[in-house]
């Protein structure tokens, strides 16, 4: 029995074993499936449920604390909205019990807490600015969260096996390219504070297609590298202590580099360019195991960024704000370092344990609910709170990489690592930018920052990681042991 | 709302947040320290000197002698390996050189995973690398989508392939062959 089921399982992967009668397989897998169900009382899902309830409690407490701190009274309206969100997250959990019972139990609670903290902070800034209803960013953020979680539910139900995505590798590549081009199309493209990365119809909906493009690109890179990895990793000359690729194998990285440079030049968006190029470089490194790719990638981007800083005024401005933030002329200039320095003052005001939710002045920083949400959280939760949040990100990313490590198929491995890495890189770029470690570039802090497109994209990443982690545990190896 | 209450609430919330972080870390401890290590039953503990994680289909037996007896008759190089003429697998090159695994009717998985029938740990072996299996009484080798491939007689295989007696099969840095 075991013999047949294993042949079937690996045959589904390789697609070549087909010489046994079909009914025999069916009977076997049905028996195995019931056996597995009996044996495992959904331990992972129960653990997830416990953590989710904890997460939802943290979210409600944070909203209540914001109200107590800012107004001194409790108003239950937003708590009800938050409860609706908790219900949706629990819906996703119930859904996982049926369609992906072996998925990783930690991703969902972490994402829930990060999303909830973001909502609480945005709500806090709305209270300070005295806006409510649909004008308030928090109401929109909750609505977008609901849409994002629904999107995650749809993805996890529709994508039954992540290897399906492998079939459409090039379609995803074309799709990503199209999404990146969309904001440049006259009529639907929108320019917001210098960067042309938005699309909108009328002045109704605005969306950042680059956020979805990063997922499509991760799928494309994973599929492409699985197909072509051999030529990129096997041959090449040894120089110093590393093996360098042949000149003609540099083709793909040059294409992606050119694409990133085009984003910098035409869309004025350094963050997205850095994200895509970094994603490709890391996936190349993971798939070939060669350090030289990292060196080549960093070198190429360094050269590009240097020339961009020399020729493009907005890049030059970013560098000046970063290097010389506290000089009065830079501080007072239009588009100067005022915002950055306000954020740093906020962080300093927060100190070790923060001013308490609702009791700081984070609204003094422009864009304190989106780009500078980390500074706002740092002011009200302090260093201790920021480290807890960074710890949550670290755990999330480590889960993603762990899923990649455990994966049995190369595509799943690369996809999981790539998706986890986009989150890590985005956190680094944003937190680094706000704390003046690197020049600030316009990306979103995953799950926290106000912005619908980013929320939808990140929840789709959660769904894909859950899907990959489920197929790992129910894969061929598991059938061997059962 | 008094200052003191707010201070207590502020610190309480930070503690709650950190409690959540540690709850997650506690939940993933099994990943770091391995799945819950069950103590072996007293009866079995006496028999097993080294803990075997799971019953492998064909447990590796220690080498019978330092140098494996040369049993590849030159005239039968291209004889098909079947259930009737194969009794063991002998590792001819690599870190485990000389090790023999007796083959029954069960398939044998090869890879880095601890639950493989034949565990090979090196940089070039995938977690689930290849599998030996019986098809209509013939021994076949199947590559499980491994990263660096499985080589039968020096050629990389892409589909389940018939093994001939004494032909070297290479997985990572290890070579082995089937013998009677």
Automatic annotation (TrEMBL), chain B:
InterPro entries: Cell_Proc_Reg/RNA_Proc (IPR050923), FHA_dom (IPR000253), SMAD_FHA_dom_sf (IPR008984), YscD_cytoplasmic_dom (IPR032030). Keywords: Phosphoprotein. Signal peptide: none annotated. Residues 52-72 have a biased composition (Pro residues). Pfam families: Yop-YscD_cpl. The keyword Phosphoprotein applies. Residues 37-80 are annotated as: Disordered. Residues 108-157 form the FHA domain. SMART domains: FHA. PANTHER family: NUCLEAR INHIBITOR OF PROTEIN PHOSPHATASE-1 (PTHR23308). This is FHA domain-containing protein.
């Amino acid at each position: 029995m075991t013999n047949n089921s294993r042949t079937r399982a690996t045959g589904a992967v390789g697609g070549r074993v087909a010489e046994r009668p079909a009914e025999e397989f069916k009977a076997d897998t049905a028996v195995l499936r019931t056996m597995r169900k009996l044996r495992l009382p959904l331990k992972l899902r129960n653990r997830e449920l416990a953590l989710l309830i904890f997460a939802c409690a943290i979210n409600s407490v944070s909203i209540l604390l914001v109200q107590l701190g800012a107004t001194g009274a409790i108003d239950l309206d937003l708590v009800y909205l938050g409860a609706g969100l908790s219900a949706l997250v629990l819906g996703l959990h119930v859904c996982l019990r049926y369609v992906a019972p072996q998925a990783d139990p930690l991703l969902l609670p972490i994402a829930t807490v990060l999303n909830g903290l973001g909502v609480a902070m945005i709500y806090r800034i709305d209270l300070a600015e005295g806006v409510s209803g649909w004008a308030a960013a928090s109401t929109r953020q909750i609505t977008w969260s609901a849409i994002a979680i629904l999107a995650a539910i749809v993805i996890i139900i529709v994508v039954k096996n992540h290897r399906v995505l492998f079939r459409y590798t090039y379609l995803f590549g074309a799709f990503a390219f199209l999404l990146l081009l969309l904001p440049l199309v006259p009529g639907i493209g929108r320019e917001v504070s210098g960067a042309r990365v938005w699309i909108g119809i009328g002045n109704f909906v605005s969306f950042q297609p680059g956020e979805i493009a990063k997922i499509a690109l991760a799928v494309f890179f994973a599929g492409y590298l699985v197909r072509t990895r051999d030529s990129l990793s096997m041959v090449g000359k040894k120089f110093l202590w590393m093996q360098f690729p042949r000149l003609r194998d540099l083709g793909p990285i040059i294409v992606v580099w050119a694409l990133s440079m085009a984003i910098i030049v035409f869309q004025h968006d350094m963050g997205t360019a850095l994200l895509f190029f970094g994603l490709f470089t890391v996936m190349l490194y993971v798939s070939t195991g060669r350090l030289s790719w990292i060196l080549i990638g960093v070198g190429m981007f360094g050269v590009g960024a240097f020339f961009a800083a020399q020729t493009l005024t907005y890049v030059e401005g970013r560098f000046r704000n970063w290097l010389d933030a506290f000089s009065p002329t830079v501080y007072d200039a239009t588009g100067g370092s005022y915002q950055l320095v306000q954020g740093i003052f906020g962080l300093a005001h927060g100190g070790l344990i923060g001013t308490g939710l609702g009791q700081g002045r984070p609204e003094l920083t422009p864009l304190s609910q989106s780009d500078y949400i980390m500074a706002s959280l740092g002011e009200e939760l302090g260093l201790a709170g920021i480290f807890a949040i960074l710890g949550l990100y670290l755990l999330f990313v480590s889960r993603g990489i762990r899923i990649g490590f455990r994966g049995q198929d190369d595509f799943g491995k690369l996809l999981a690592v790539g998706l986890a890495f986009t989150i890590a890189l985005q956190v680094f770029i944003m937190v680094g930018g706000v704390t003046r470690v690197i020049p600030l570039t316009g990306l979103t802090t995953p799950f926290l920052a106000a912005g619908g497109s980013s929320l939808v994209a990140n929840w789709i990443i959660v769904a894909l990681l859950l899907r990959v982690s489920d197929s790992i545990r129910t894969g061929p190896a598991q059938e061997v042991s059962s | 709302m008094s200052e003191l209450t707010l201070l207590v609430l502020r610190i309480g919330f930070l503690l709650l947040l950190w409690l959540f972080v540690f709850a997650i870390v506690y939940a993933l401890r099994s990943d770091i320290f391995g799945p819950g290590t069950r103590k072996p039953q007293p009866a079995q503990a006496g028999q097993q000197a080294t803990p075997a994680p799971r019953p492998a289909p064909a447990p590796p037996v220690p080498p019978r002698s330092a140098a494996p007896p040369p049993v590849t008759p030159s005239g039968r190089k291209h004889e098909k390996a079947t259930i009737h003429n194969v009794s063991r697998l002998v590792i001819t090159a690599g870190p485990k050189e000389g090790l023999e695994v007796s083959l029954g009717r069960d398939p044998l998985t090869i890879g880095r995973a601890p639950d493989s029938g034949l565990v090979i740990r090196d940089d070039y072996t995938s977690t689930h690398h290849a599998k030996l299996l019986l098809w209509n009484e013939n021994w076949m080798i199947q590559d499980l989508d491994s990263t660096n491939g499985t080589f039968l007689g020096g050629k990389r295989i892409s589909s389940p392939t018939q093994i001939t007696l004494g032909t070297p099969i290479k997985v990572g840095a290890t070579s082995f062959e089937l013998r009677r």
